[in-house]
């Protein structure tokens, strides 16, 4: 057998074919969808500008650049029902429009636009987005037909990650991948064959099958410990033109921002990584500073009124400082308006606030219910200790308790803690029992896996409604 190494150009990491049912970054429909939301917002804005002024004036062009930067890449809606598409589009647009309004009022930039133009854009933008998404769904078969028939694929190794990959490909619409079946050396009765996929043959028959059936894609789903078998398979495929992808064992693990990378020329795969690296980190921090600055200017009178109310109704400090774990699990000092008669910082022990808790002051009950006690944390955001959106920080004693009970608990500290978060807007704001905490951590980790600026805007918009309907704050 020829033992010369297989060129790295032939062996690749498995592409994102079906992450959570998504199309994958290299799919043509994915690229088109990424342009729909920002593109239609910009085009509708230009249309409004031309209608009201007869030309594209500089203020419209500047706003279009800001809007595009805020919304690119767009949402994936090709699988959504019409009801879900409309709901999601309206929620996303409400969050973006609210943020643009706040920025416009704070900077005075809104004075450059007639009220009629803004109202027209407010209605035209989501309608054009919804229409464009539905048009793409109707045109998808014709677009994909231009690429030719689906690519034939086989999976080497009928194991857990191989079966999971086959199912995801099958469940992902427009994947353009036709999985013919599996190759494995084990007997059929030892395999857990998925419905709709069969065992084609043993590994030795793979090269001949690939040539005879014009197989274009091969997914190697063999254990990393099976290096001799992997090398043997690769050697047998040297005389084919099929693209070969390696599906590592980590495919079945709970990846956080999993991606391929290179360290001094050596390829590596990240298993657990922060979403805020490089450009995304700068974008996240820049938006935090901008949002916190604008919001602090707008809420300054409210904060002053709350501070006066606290001072007049109960003895003690106005600001309550409490130690929490922040980025990378390091201790930070978090600010809150004092809502209780005690100021325990939760380092050694922590007693969860109960309904009717005698420690809560009269004004404290109100500011806790409305989350006004959290407003000083925008100062923490400017300090770099917190983010506007992120996993909520827990008391140190709570952290130390649950990090021993919940797998992956400390992964949430790979990012700055937030004033509001994905768990909170999904109903997991209060409660420190194990089940509630597990669900909260699940949402926190889901946020890390799927972060985008749009998700942050969506969470901010949802937070406003949750604050006034939440029954778990007291």
Would you give an account of this structure?
It is a multi-pass membrane protein. This is Putative colanic acid biosynthesis UDP-glucose lipid carrier transferase. InterPro entries: Bact_transf, EPS_sugar_tfrase, NAD(P)-bd_dom_sf, Undecaprenyl-P_gluc_Ptfrase. The protein has 474 residues and is an alpha/beta fold. It has 3 domains: 28-145, no CATH class; 149-253, Rossmann fold; 279-469, no CATH class. It is 47% helix and 12% strand. The strands form 4 sheets. It has a 6-stranded parallel sheet, with helices on one face. A hairpin with a 2-residue loop joins strand 7 and strand 8 (266-270). The longest helix is centred in the middle third of the chain and has 35 residues, at 279-313. It is flat. The relative contact order is 0.09.
Keywords:
flat; Undecaprenyl-P_gluc_Ptfrase; 14 helices; disordered N terminus; 12% strand; six-stranded parallel beta sheet; 474 residues; 3 domains; Rossmann fold; transferase; transmembrane helix; alpha/beta
